[in-house]
Amino acid sequence: MRVFLRLCISLIGFSCIISAHASKGIDWQLTESGDLFDIARTYQKQAELPDEVTLILQANDVHVADNHVTEHVKKIWFYPNARDVENDGDHSIYYNEKIERLTLLSIASMNSLGEVKSMDPSVIQVLDTDNSRSFSDSKKVVLTIPGLAGGSLSIIEYKLIRDLSKQESDWSKIHFTQWGYPADQFNLSINWPASKQLFWSSNSSDVMCKAEENQLLCSGSDIPAFKNDNNIYWRDHIGQIAIGELQNWQQVIDTSKDAMNKALSDTTGADELVQSITADSPSIDEKISKIHEFVARDIRYVSISELGHTITPHDVASVIKNRYGDCKDKSMLLNELLRRIGINSYPVLVATDRSAPEELLIPTLGYFNHVVICFDRQSQQHCLDATNQDTYWLYTPSWIQNTVTLPLVNSKQPSILANSLYRWQLNASTQITFNRDGGQSEDQKRQFIGEYASSMKNILLSRTEEERETWLTNQYHDKVTSLSEPEFDVINLSEMAPQLVINSRAKIKPFLDSSANLEYEENDAWLIDELNSMRLQNKHYDEHFTGLKLHTEYLYDTKGIWKITRTPPVLNFKYNFGSLRRQIELTPSKKLIVTTDIEIPEQQIKKNQLEAFNRFLDLLKQESMIRFNGLLLKTSHKSKT
Length: 641
What we know:
36 strands; Papain-like_cys_pep_sf; DUF3857 domain-containing protein; alpha+beta; 3 domains; 9-stranded mixed beta sheet; signal; Transglutaminase-like; DUF3857
């Protein structure tokens, strides 16, 4: 599908490296002996070893106490050859340095001779995983294991101790039971005191679980590799076991509402701010637009999810004063300002990496990593993302459409955030004037609408003016023609507007014989480009098509050089996936107008229909060719000679 669709689904951020000595909450107690090394040596002595990367052992032992949780993790991976080491030899551990203590017990390799090399603590890298579109306080510890080579094993053992007294939300844990490669053995043991009540659920067909009093034991062997795919949220499909403290979703709503409402402890400055933002906006719609644009653009994103503010926003007054905040701070400011103009808005939690509510196995806040503000207006729900600087408020940002949400409204359940019927909307008009030397003058206008406008703005605004011109020129040469050097004019680029317009003008070098009858053909360039980018790519699962609405118009003016004698056919093609309609007009002034409309609404394409859908797109492309003939007019020929 469209390459930069995923800029709306991929999380934009940066990583900063912290030295081992500066990292908080990490202890080293490395050893090169014990049961894990005994298992590894026994494995290396096998007569036959696998020919693909294999997880030999994954063992998690979890002890839940009244005020802390201890998780002891053991892993052994096997790499058949050097290429596997290059591709899959890197490992990492995620932890929250504010409320967790990480103890590294074994980070080592073992070669085929049983020789062991341990990681040097001085080479540790700790990366910040935070980004402007999620609330997260986790760190990524990169394990650079020395000595890995073909036929070797990686041995990883560590403990994580979480202080529950410092945790703002409920405790839960998701244990995945599949990986990108097969696993020989998976063991999971979780126990808890009688004073606690925990709830668990599993969707794994490869791992069997048995619940006893205050204990859960799960195990599986010979587990096949997870079949990933090109366009899925893999967490919707992979095997997993979930355990947590909460019994229903209302508990998640209550906990989250209590945290979010703490932003209202001080709202000093909100009235004055609303007045200054909306003073020149007479209508409610204009006020909504101005408020959203202010919060998205004028409140700078700063990651400040410090202890006590992982899910709890800072108060509105401090965000107004400082002009910065993280995603939940910005969202609650947006919510408060909207309410002051009479909009009954409410926060909505978003799980940006999931699209199947039924696969949320237990009620927990842990699934959700983002928050937006929603409200109903004129019988339609609108959801505004306070971190999105490019999407006009009437459109839901593409990157959160079709994701799982939980409105912080009593009695609500997880559901899908509504999809636009047509996420990608484009109107393209082209006026082509023939000249007597066999060349053309071309004037083109592309109008991107809604989410598509936002995506194009993101692409163009990430570049300098010179880089934008180069990018647009390269795109034109690739999609339209390389016979000209177009000039561009971009309208509404810096505005938070519902549309983006790209105008271009080009002089196309001579390529026609203007002394002979005309036989002309060209592809509907932007139609071809859109259909190529919309092809579905999954092999194992259903795939979500996000919707395309395309209108193109070509106006051809032969300037009296030829009289058009044969025009393209009129088309009216309808199928269960969508439709194509082409209309032809020959005006009294002898200009030819070719208009084409394609409408393919948002839909879920079943696995067994993926090939049929792509054949449907191919058929539409075949009909994109514009062909017509013209009779050379004698007056034109004489004037040239």
